[in-house]
Amino acid sequence: MAIGSKNLQSTDLDKIEDSVLVEELKKAREELFNLRFQSATGQLESHGRLRAVKRDIARIYTIIRERELGIRAVPTAAAAKPATKAKKAESTDAAATEEA
Fold it and tell me: In this structure, are residues 13 and 62 in contact, taking their beta carbons and an 8 Å threshold?
């Protein structure tokens, strides 16, 4: 995901987990700080980049807040896949031995 590019859409952000979103938010805020610093010293080449990064930060904050409120669905983790039949059989065997 490229912060400050026109390719960052809210549909792309929907697929990303919260922890990754927080990391991307951190990166975007650091980039905004650097861009503001460049602007203050007269070294900024693209003023439109400031606007794009600000909008990306707002998008990320919006996605995070909508997930907190339950408006948007939180993506399921890849590690939370349903158990296979072999794992289910092992867990039922273990439960049966505990009961005995």
Answer: no
In this structure, the chain runs to a length of 100
DSSP 2: -
Read off φ and ψ for residue 16, nearest 5 degrees: -100, 140
Enumerate the domain spans of the chain: 10-99
- Tokens linked to 85: 């039949």
Please tell me the distance from the alpha carbon of residue 70 to that of residue 56, in angstroms, as a whole number: 21
Look up the CATH number of domain 10-99.
1.10.287.310
The reported pTM is: 0.68
Tens digits of per-residue pLDDT, 11-22? 888 888 889 999
